[in-house]
Write a structure and sequence with these properties.
The complex is a heterodimer of chains A (about 270) and B (about 325). Chain A is built from 14 helices and no strands. Chain A is mostly helical and about 270 residues long. In chain B, helix 3 packs across helix 14 and helix 13 packs antiparallel against helix 14. The longest helix of chain B has about 30 residues. The chains are: A mainly alpha (about 270), B mainly alpha (about 325). Chains A and B meet through helix 1, helix 3, helix 4, helix 5 and helix 6 of A and helix 1, helix 2, helix 4, helix 5 and helix 6 of B.
Chain lengths: ~270, ~325
């Protein structure tokens, strides 16, 4: 609309200064991670003789390969499970107008209010009794259940804005309920499925408290717990620690920069409802 | 959309099997009143898998937690006794718990104010005509997706006495501002709040940005034609129309602030001393360091009630305001 004025230029400069505050820690992170361990210069000074030794050491010492794999499996399986069961549940909850349907809907939505810390410790005991402590499947089950309320909330909100014509056409054509859902309803849910996947995947990948409880002290670790125990060992050797931190966030940042538009929209869109 | 065509292929196909035979035969061919009645109650079976996971993971453990909070369960032995409200009495009388309660409220309040203020300013900035707005949006949002544990370790190093923050201050000729950021009780609290705001300001920005972009351009132009200055336009046009975004942001930041765990746990571990101990870190420590599981659950329940009451109050307040 308007033109680029001196004022706009001033604003641009101010915004750049703000951006420096956001980028500065990342600069330090990278700067230090490529620095030889014996280099005692101030962390702010640009590095002179870059080395990848820290990365090699971190990779070998921290068991990051296994941890990255575990985090990937947990994230992919639990989010897939969440998408399937939540969209399937949201369909009748948005469409059927019986008292039972409303009751189930509110029971599930109540989960949005309960902080999971209350459930976390009793569930810790149950999982221990089932012998699942230290298994990544305990986390898959946990996240699948934990994410139901928010995901069902998003799906039902979206479904209520969808016209029923397609479903009615499908059932007129003789498609059963499950068939109607799979081939008509679920494809129409694609935009909100994107939001559900993004929000849940980031939450699962980044989670720390739950894997710390259910997996720590075992060989099966997620990336956050692996980092936690790794830093515990190398607490004073920051260059190696930083290389480990960089390795752990590469997958997230890669996905972020590839899909940044969708991710930012996902965050904004999921919360408008 | 091609899938819609698929369903025309086989009318009257016997899909009843897949639906566990739940749809009474012929029902689908009867008359179809409009609206919800058409959807048979049998469809509710679709909610069963989600319900099973949800009940197993959330409902049952929460109810058991509610019960165990009134016992002296240590988490290890199978035996425990009911001890009434002793655990809750402890929460509200023990200095450690009261301090954690206070710290939690301070952190949540500070994060709510600063994260939203900075988020709003950033949103206004990248919603302007500046050339770098798209790049900056990505930069400001990036910390939101970075693992909180990584962010906390990064800042933990930055804030050590020999860390990057003090080095940078020295380099800028501001050596007098150098501090032991995580060693001083007050500064440690400030640091925890700062790091949380640094990480999540981009999140508030994105919500505000969505709100800003839904404001009709004509409205802004009309205000400009009427001679309204920038501040006046913000005060009279933008701010009222941002109300929904503000409501969502306030609710989410309060809840996140009250429940915050990773940042505090990694950055300070609740220290120095107990200066940054929050309910979340105290819940963890009570259960897994001191084996006081029942007490820990009582703390969690208190936190749950605080979260519910504060966000419920916000919701009602916001709805009242939105009427205007």
């Amino acid at each position: 609309m308007g033109r680029y004025t001196v004022k706009t230029l001033g604003l641009e400069v101010v915004m750049y200064l703000a951006a420096i505050v956001f980028i500065f820690p990342v600069y330090i992170l990278l700067n230090l991670s490529f620095r030889p361990s014996n280099d005692q210069a101030s962390p702010v000074v640009p590095l002179t003789s870059p080395t990848i030794d820290n990365y090699v050491n971190a990779w070998n010492e921290a068991g990051l390969a296994q941890a990255l794999l575990n985090s990937a499996i947990i994230t992919i399986v639990s989010v897939t499970l969440t998408v399937v069961i939540s969209s399937l549940a949201a369909y009748p909850l948005a469409r059927v107008t019986s008292r039972l349907s409303t009751g189930v809907f509110w029971l599930i939505l109540a989960g949005l209010l309960i902080p999971f810390q209350v459930a976390l410790i009793p569930l810790y005991q149950t999982i221990r009794d089932l012998g699942l402590l230290g298994s990544i499947w305990s986390l898959v089950i946990f996240y699948a259940g934990l994410q139901v309320p928010f995901s069902v909330f998003l799906y039902t909100g979206f479904l209520r804005t969808l016209p029923r014509d397609y479903e009615e056409a499908a059932s007129l054509d003789g498609a059963g309920q499950l068939r109607t859902f799979v081939s008509v309803v679920f494809p129409l849910l694609r935009p909100i499925t994107g939001t559900v996947v993004i929000l849940n995947a980031i939450a699962v990948w980044n989670d720390f408290l739950v894997p710390l409880l259910y997996l720590s002290g075992t060989t099966q670790q997620t990336i956050t717990v692996a980092l936690y125990s790794f830093v515990g060992q190398y607490v004073s050797n920051w260059p190696i620690v930083f290389a480990g931190l960089v390795i752990s966030i590469i997958p997230v940042l890669l996905v972020y920069f590839l899909l940044q538009k969708h991710i930012i929209q996902g965050f904004a869109g999921g919360l408008k409802g | 959309m091609t899938t819609v065509v698929d369903s025309t292929v086989n009318p009257l196909a016997g899909y009843e099997d897949e639906e566990r035979g739940l749809e009474p035969a012929g029902r689908g061919n009867g008359k179809r009143p409009r609206g919800g009645q058409r959807f048979s109650r049998q469809l509710l079976w679709f909610a069963l898998p989600a319900l099973v996971f949800y009940v197993f993971v959330v409902v049952v453990p929460t109810l058991r937690g509610g019960l165990l909070a009134f016992t002296n369960w240590d988490g290890l032995s199978q035996a425990y006794e009911f001890i009434g409200i002793d655990n809750f009495v402890r929460v509200f009388t023990e200095p450690a718990a009261l301090q954690a309660l206070g710290t939690t409220l301070i952190i949540a309040a500070a994060i709510t104010v600063f994260q939203n203020l900075i988020g709003l300013l950033l949103a206004l900035g990248v919603n302007s005509r500046i050339k770098s707005r798209n790049v900056l949006r990505v930069v400001f949002f990036a910390p939101v997706v970075i693992t909180p544990v990584v962010v906390a370790y990064l800042w933990k190093f930055m804030l050590t006495p020999e860390g990057a923050v003090n080095s940078a201050l020295g380099g800028l000729g501001l050596g007098s501002l150098q501090q032991d950021w995580l060693g001083n009780p007050t500064l440690a609290l400030v640091s925890v709040i700062f790091v949380a705001v640094w990480q999540n300001a981009g999140f508030s920005m994105v919500i505000f940005l969505a709100g800003l972009q839904s404001i009709p351009q004509e409205l802004m132009e009309a205000a400009e034609v009427d001679g309204a200055g920038a501040w006046r336009r913000f005060r009279s046009v933008v701010w009222p129309l941002l109300a929904p975004a503000t409501t969502i942001n306030l609710m989410l930041t309060v809840i996140a602030g009250l429940k915050m765990f990773s940042e505090v746990f990694v950055l300070t571990g609740g220290g120095p001393g107990t200066a940054t101990q929050t309910l979340s870190t105290l819940i963890y420590k009570s259960a897994f360091q001191f084996n006081e599981f029942a007490y820990s659950i009582a703390l969690a329940l208190v936190l749950a009630v605080i979260v519910a009451v504060i966000s419920g109050a916000q919701y009602r307040l916001a709805n009242r305001k939105d009427q205007f």
